[in-house]
Amino acid sequence: MSIETGVLYVVATPLGNLGDISPRAAQVLGEVDVVAAEDTRVSGRLLAHLGQSAQRLLSLHEHNETARVPDLIQQLSEGASVALVSDAGTPLISDPGFRLVAAAREAGVRVSPVPGPSALIAALSVAGLPTDRFVFEGFLPAKSAARRSRLQALDEERRTLVFYESSHRIEACLGDMTEVFGGARRGVVARELTKRFEQVADGTLDELVAWLAADADHCRGEFVVVVAGDAREERTAESASVEKVLGVLVETLSTRQAADIAARITGAPRQALYREAQRLKNLQAGEDE
User: C-alpha 80: how far from its chain's center?
Assistant: First the structure.
């Protein structure tokens, strides 16, 4: 298959194992006029592995994408062929490239995918959690209060949840997930997929927090976190009312007082209300940080 002129190719590249490059991706990278890369050093190593010249590399990352796009669209309009790559996996999936692809489509430039590796799909394929319906959330906010707020919005999501996370936030992220979703929720931590030190750990969120803490090496590298969706039966109007009452009470009362009064008002079991009040208090404390 020959490379066409005036086409923007969106090329997926290996996550870590260079043997995962597809023959078509290798051909496209070898024949296009320009390779627009998130990091020219990383992509340069890939091209060297393929025995190709790195002279056609052009940096395209989050800090320069807006400035680079007009020139690349001009080159494409004049018949140049361009390959868009990220450091690893499929471009645009929590990586740069959206502005270029959107501008190309607006300009009438053909955009063609060269599919291949994707960290989120790789993690889902080995997680052992439902994959018929899932939600990809990318990277959660860096600060705990904002992260917990986002997780709280996902608490009742029934589809499998997929997140990316970095080494310096993975422990805090799992801790917040445990706080919001509950330690009994099932999850998977996929670390360094396709690389030498690949690990896929599964268990409850409590167990995964303990797994991270057991070995400093478990917190190194790049992560995909997969969390089971909310398996609780859909809340009835009555249970929603109980939660609303408890939510108001914990804003001004102690956990024990809130649970006692909520039990008297609603008739719900006091112990269950106490546990829920503790969870709400912890969430409020996180939001106040």
Answer: 33
Query: Environment class of residue 86 by beta-carbon count within 10 Å: exposed (0-12), middle (13-18) or buried (19+)?
Result: buried
- Position 115 scores a pLDDT of 97
Surface-to-core class of residue 82, CB atoms within 10 Å of its CB (0-12 exposed, 13-18 middle, 19+ buried): buried
Q: Within a domain: residue 84? A: yes
For residue 1, tell me if it sits in a domain. Answer: no
pTM of the model: 0.79
Residue 220 is classified by DSSP as -
The domain that holds 29 is classified in CATH as 3.40.1010.10
Full residue range of the structural domain in which residue 163 is found: 120-227
Asked if residue 14 belongs to a domain, the reply is yes
- Are 239 and 156 spatial neighbours (Cβ–Cβ below 8 Å)? no
Count of the separate structural domains present in the chain: 3
Helix H or strand E encompassing 68: helix 65-77
CA distances from 280 to 138, 208, 245, 253 (A): 25, 22, 12, 12
Same domain membership, residue 135 and residue 218: yes
Domain end, chosen from 227, 250, 274, is at 227
CA-CA-CA-CA torsion sign (56, 59, 65, 68): negative
* Residue 151: closest CA among 275, 287, 289: 287
Model confidence over 160-181: pLDDT tens digits?
999 999 999 999 999 999 999 9
Mean pLDDT, the chain, integer: 93
